[in-house]
Each structure stands twice: as structure tokens, then as C-alpha cells.
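Lab notebook, design round three. We kept the backbone fixed and only want residue identities now. Task for the bench partner: fill in a sequence for the structure below.
Input C-alpha cells:
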């Protein structure tokens, strides 16, 4: 454990990451850890350890809000924690068992790169699942299955615990996955969840998950007090500010940009050259926009989100105007 003075530049980076987290609800690990590694030269294990501990102070804020709103399924939280708490601690322990020095740092870079790419794919899958959900609602001519009462959703104990264990292991090793991989798994296990219920349940179960991972990294990782403090000095007000303005910000556009950033970061961490990373990012942007527009049309929506919003506004105006 190192006792370093706080770094103003890292605090500014924490502010920006916290702002994005507040705007979109995405987990900060997928952003903060690569930023620390790429821009500040922090060793991968120190970046993961400090980011995990910093998350312990950020997760309860959102979880408390959702508990107050009643958008948390505590039964599912319980079974997720049955798997995620030991899984997260085991992830930190597994890092120590992999060795130390350059070998461990290189292994962690590869693991982090792979998880970032998986997280980018998971965010894409999440958007597609939401598209299917809206289409089913339109076909049914009702608000849809998303309106099922939270208390009536049955728990799938074994599948939920196994999902928590896998998610906890990934978070414990890389600090990434609580806000991306686990949410997609929950969407598949519990398709009747509303968006707010998904986010709320995931945030609340992430508190004991991150607490367990933090304990593991305090014991076996490379926690740096100054680094963690620097992140929190910026991230906590950033999350608050982002949450305050989220209703007036195109969060979907930010999430798509972050998906691209995660893909590029993961590719770089896996050892691709800068030129190759740029090629992949540009190709993903151009092809992705075209393919996603075609997918939206195929499922009955306008090619772009802003067009769909304009369509809804026009429909609402027509419905409210007198004959």
C-alpha cells in the first residue's frame, strides 16, 4: 500500500469520468482504469486496485437513490451477492496467484483489454435488446411486458448466483463489468425488468460486490491511497453534476461514444498498434452507424434516435390537437 500525495491532473480525469457516469449510468471502471494506464502511466495492478476502492465510495450514492424509489429487486440482489461477493474477492486473490512484477502486469493488461472489448459488445447487445423490447410493446399495442410489477418477478436463484459469481470475478480482476456485463446478463435472465429496475438492482448489488473486491485489493493488490483520493476528489462531484444534468443531455449519444472508446482501448491493451486501433475505431464508427440505422428500420423505428424523437413529438402534437 503506497501513501502518495494527491495528483490534481488525476482529480480532473476523475471529474470527467464521474461526469460521464452521472450522465449515462455506466460504470466508471471501464473508463478510469484505461485512463490511468494510458495517460498517467500507472501500473495496471495499481490502477485496478485504486479504481476498485474508489468505486466503493461511489456506488452507494446511486444505490441509495434507487432504494428510495423502490426500483430494486432485493431478492435478486441477495442471490447475485451469493455469487458476486466471493467471486470479487477471489478475483483479487487470483491476481496475486498469477505472480508479480512484469508477468502479472502484462497478464492484467491482456485481461483488461479482453474485458473492455466484451463490455463494448455487451453495451451493443443491451441497446439491441432494448430495441426488441420496444418492438414487442408496439406489436402488443400496450406499454409491454416492461410494466410488470417488480415484486411479481420470480427469482432464478442458481442462474442469478452463477451470474453474480462470474461478474464478481471479472470485476475483482479488472474493475470492469459491474455496469455493463452484469446488466446485460440481468436483461437476459429477467427480460421483464424495466430500465430503472435493471440499473437500480445492479447498483445495489454492486455495493457488497465492490466492498469484497476492495478488501481483496487492500490485502493482495497494489492500492495507492493518494491515487484513490485523487480519483474521488474529482469523481464524486462529477457524478453529482452528471446526474443533475442527465435529463437534459443526449445520454444515448454519449453511451455510443463510450462504447467506441472501450473498443479502441481494449484493442490497444491487447497489443495492437496505434494505426491499427485508429483503423478499427473508424471502421467501427462508419460501419456501426450504417448497420445500426438499418437494424432500427428493420424493427420499426427511424434510422436515428433524433428522428425517432421528432416522430414522437409530432405524433403527440397531432394527438393533442383538436379535430
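Proposed sequence:
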Amino acid at each position: 500500500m503506497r501513501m502518495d500525495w494527491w495528483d490534481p491532473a488525476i482529480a480532473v480525469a476523475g471529474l470527467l469520468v464521474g461526469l460521464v457516469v452521472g450522465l449515462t449510468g455506466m460504470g466508471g471502471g471501464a473508463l478510469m482504469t484505461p485512463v490511468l494506464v494510458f495517460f498517467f502511466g500507472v501500473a495496471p495492478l495499481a490502477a485496478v486496485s485504486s479504481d476498485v476502492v474508489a468505486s466503493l465510495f461511489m456506488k452507494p450514492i446511486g444505490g441509495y437513490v434507487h432504494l428510495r424509489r423502490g426500483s430494486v429487486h432485493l431478492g435478486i440482489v441477495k442471490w447475485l451477492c451469493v455469487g458476486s461477493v466471493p467471486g470479487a474477492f477471489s478475483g483479487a486473490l487470483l491476481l496475486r496467484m498469477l505472480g508479480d512484477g512484469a508477468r502479472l502486469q502484462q497478464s492484467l493488461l491482456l485481461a483488461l483489454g479482453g474485458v473492455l472489448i466484451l463490455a463494448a459488445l455487451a453495451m451493443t447487445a443491451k441497446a439491441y435488446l432494448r430495441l426488441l423490447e420496444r418492438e414487442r410493446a408496439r406489436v402488443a399495442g400496450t406499454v409491454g411486458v416492461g410494466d410488470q410489477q417488480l415484486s411479481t418477478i420470480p427469482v432464478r436463484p442458481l442462474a442469478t448466483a452463477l451470474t453474480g459469481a462470474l461478474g464478481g470475478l471479472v470485476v475483482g480482476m479488472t474493475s470492469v463489468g459491474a455496469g455493463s456485463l452484469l446488466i446485460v446478463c440481468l436483461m437476459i435472465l429477467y427480460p421483464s425488468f424495466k430500465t430503472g429496475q435493471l440499473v437500480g438492482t445492479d447498483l445495489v448489488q454492486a455495493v457488497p460486490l465492490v466492498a469484497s473486491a476492495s478488501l481483496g485489493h487492500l490485502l493482495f493488490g497494489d492500492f495507492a491511497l493518494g491515487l484513490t483520493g485523487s480519483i474521488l476528489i474529482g469523481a464524486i462531484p462529477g457524478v453529482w453534476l452528471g446526474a443533475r444534468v442527465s435529463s437534459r443531455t443526449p445520454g444515448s449519444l454519449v453511451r455510443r461514444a463510450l462504447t467506441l472508446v472501450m473498443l479502441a482501448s481494449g484493442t490497444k491493451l491487447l497489443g495492437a498498434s496505434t494505426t491499427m486501433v485508429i483503423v478499427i475505431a473508424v471502421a467501427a464508427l462508419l460501419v456501426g452507424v450504417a448497420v445500426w440505422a438499418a437494424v432500427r428500420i428493420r424493427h420499426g423505428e427511424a434510422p436515428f434516435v433524433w428522428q425517432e424523437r421528432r416522430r414522437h413529438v409530432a405524433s403527440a402534437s397531432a394527438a393533442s390537437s383538436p379535430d
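Keep this in mind before ordering anything: Residues 101-140 form the longest helix (40 residues).
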